[in-house]
Amino acid sequence: MNTITLGTSGIRCQTVGLGTWAMGGWMWGGNDDAAAIDAIRASLDAGVQLIDTAPAYGLGHAEDLVGRALEGRRQQAVVATKCGLVWHTRQGRHFFDEEGHAVHRHLGRASIFHEVEQSLARLRTDYIDLYITHWQDDTTPVAETMDALLDLKRQGKIRGIGVSNVEAATLAEYLRHGPVDAIQERYSLIDRDIESTLMPLCREHSVGILGYSSLALGLLAGPIDPARQFGGDDQRAGNPRFSTANRTRLHAFFQDLEPLRQQLDCTLAQLMIAWTTRPGGVTTALCGARDARQATQNARAAALRLDPPHIATIDAAAQRHLQALD
């Protein structure tokens, strides 16, 4: 598997990581805890190191699952978690409600110090490899937030600093106050905005790029049955991208890629993941998994090499079929 280093942190990981948002259950129609733990362990078995989680994923539930899964295997993993979406205080700005709790965006110093201790306990560890500001807080100066993160780094509680869901101007402000080792942003074949906004700044300052939603909430994992229904609180139920018309477009897109898939002996999902980590793409693709089978299949994408003609084939098929997807 291909390995990379995140920024100047010295943290090394593979080009495919495991995302645990769905494991928290919230917005994904529930979850199977035993299957989630199996998925985390299967990722490690398949060579994946980076496990990405956050307190907001089920109000600590995903972090707890990661901690349970990593017992006895902590040294095999690179653990990334986040701060800044809080329900222990009403400081900052209200963002959303989850399970009856009002969640606020807040990145004040005292709140970050509170959050890191909660995360360390749930993760059953005494350090976090990459600590990421989950969403930005316009009520707290970046200087205060960065000062807190740098203090945690000096204390050995975190190894590296990341920011997520950030605009280029705010990332530049973070960089004025200290090193940022990685950003985490949405990136897939159909979500490419950061190529012109954040990627140039990251390359200029040697900031790693973690791409989340590499399969666009599963839309790019392969053809979806037009009759499939998403129930409960699954966010895809009301997402216009999952319309019948879009599923038809995607079916045609995947049909065009079938010869390439056969040539490379991979799945369509692996092909889409490998596209995101091509030269000029993200440093690491974060891929969600519900069970061990999905986790193992995603991990194999790290060994898939796409040459320029392969990338051109994918881009041409996307141009033919996916331009109207949004």
Automatic annotation (TrEMBL):
SUPFAM superfamilies per record: NAD(P)-linked oxidoreductase (SSF51430)
* A GO cellular-component term linked to this record: cytosol
One matching Pfam family = Aldo_ket_red
Q: What GO annotations for molecular function exist for this entry?
A: oxidoreductase activity
Enzyme category, top tier: oxidoreductase
InterPro entries, per this entry? AKR_Detox_Biosynth, NAD(P)_OxRdtase_dom_sf, NADP_OxRdtase_dom
Where is the chain membrane-spanning?
none
**Which keywords has UniProt assigned to this entry?**
Oxidoreductase
Q: Residues in domain NADP-dependent oxidoreductase?
A: 16-317
- What does the record give as EC number? 1.1.1.-
Q: Which PANTHER family match?
A: NAD(P)-LINKED OXIDOREDUCTASE SUPERFAMILY PROTEIN, NADH-SPECIFIC METHYLGLYOXAL REDUCTASE-RELATED
Record's protein name: NADH-specific methylglyoxal reductase
Q: What is the lineage of its organism?
A: Bacteria, Pseudomonadati, Pseudomonadota, Betaproteobacteria, Burkholderiales
Gene it is expressed from: ydjG
